[in-house]
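Quick check before the chapter quiz. The format below is the same one you will see on the exam, so make sure you can read both the input and the output lines.
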Amino acid sequence: MTRIFREAGGYVAASAAAFLLDVGLLFVQVSWLGVPYLAAAAIAFVAGTIFVYWASVRHIFEFRRLDDARLEFGFFLVVGVIGLAVNLAAMYAIVDGIGVHYLLAKIGAAGLTFGVNFGLRRLFLFSRWRSGDSISPEELIR
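Here is the expected output.
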């Protein structure tokens, strides 16, 4: 099995666990604490992002481009902010635009966010580049 499939499988598992954490925190904040759903979604998303970072560097990705963990986490968070924007935009469109319950909207938003986050994180943090700013197709699938 190629490295990208192993890493994608691990990322799916970690993302599933982070999704459960995310949805649980979202539900508690909205249903029990009365936090507006978009604010609650942002807070819950950050908690899930921290979990996925831990899993990514400990168990999922074989290669780490950056030696400085603080810098790496900073870039990981930047990708997370992009993912958060995708997540919140999707949730807003689904909840306020279509009228779907916020927990059901979270499922659709999470699927879209997963693809964006995995692709960007693997590309920029957890894969080798040959030289300059070009990436060979072989490097992407190793």
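If your answer matched, good. Residues 3-141 form one domain.
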